[in-house]
Amino acid sequence: MPEKTRAPAPKRSFSDLLLTLGRPLLRISLFLYLREVRDGVYPRDLPVRTLAGSRTLTLLFFGDITVSGHGVLSYGLTVEARTSDFVAAATDRGVHWDVVSAADLTMAQVAGRSTLDAQGVDVVLLLMGIPDVLLITRSEQWARDLRCVVAAVKREAGEDARVVVAGIPPMSDFRPIPSPLRGLIDKQVHRLNEASRAVAESDDSVVYLPFPIERVSEMYIQQQFSWRTMHALWARSLADAVVARLP
């Protein structure tokens, strides 16, 4: 019998090889990130998650430190509270919002939940990605998990519900990072953001919203950087996306 020939192994791209080699370094960055987050500044007051008004809209936020209030001392300054403020002002309606947040929250963890508790929700906002970047989640897996989340939103909240996927911010601008590692992080951020964009282009119920500032470092030049400013700028973009897609 003729000897069977083994199919050649698929070629790995140079960028895939770099990510593989950089995995241990990114794991270290994940550890440092979690330690820094643990010791960070957070709101000290009690959260208020309802703005009174007629025909109340309900928002549901999922996120890592982006919706935890990192860097501000009041819940009223967080991205979810400011987003709700802007939505209420633009629609003249009441707004209620809930938050699911953890420093290490990944898209796979959200997709794997038995329920999103999204019943009655009008818009789900996903501010995800920092742990997935440092864990080197593949863009294909990210896209599959995102589609699972979207399907769960429609199943629980109905076909009219909308999903806003926020772009992952330029992480390497937030802290000094050696050049080789900076390149790996930037590449991974780009990969996952492009995967989110592709999912949104294939589903009318999903909106992909790029991070509102091209480079965070520009804020140091144009104005004094503050987390309060960051939350407000991001909230304005999120609110515009929510209002534009309301039925």
TrEMBL record:
Residue span, SGNH hydrolase-type esterase domain: 61-217
Entries under CDD domains matching the protein: FeeA_FeeB_like
Keywords on record: Hydrolase
Source organism, top-level taxon: Bacteria
SUPFAM superfamilies linked to this entry: SGNH hydrolase (SSF52266)
One GO MF term attached to the UniProt entry: hydrolase activity
The keyword Acetylation is assigned to this record: no
Family matches, as Pfam families: Lipase_GDSL_2 (PF13472)
Protein name: SGNH/GDSL hydrolase family protein
Organism: Frondihabitans cladoniiphilus
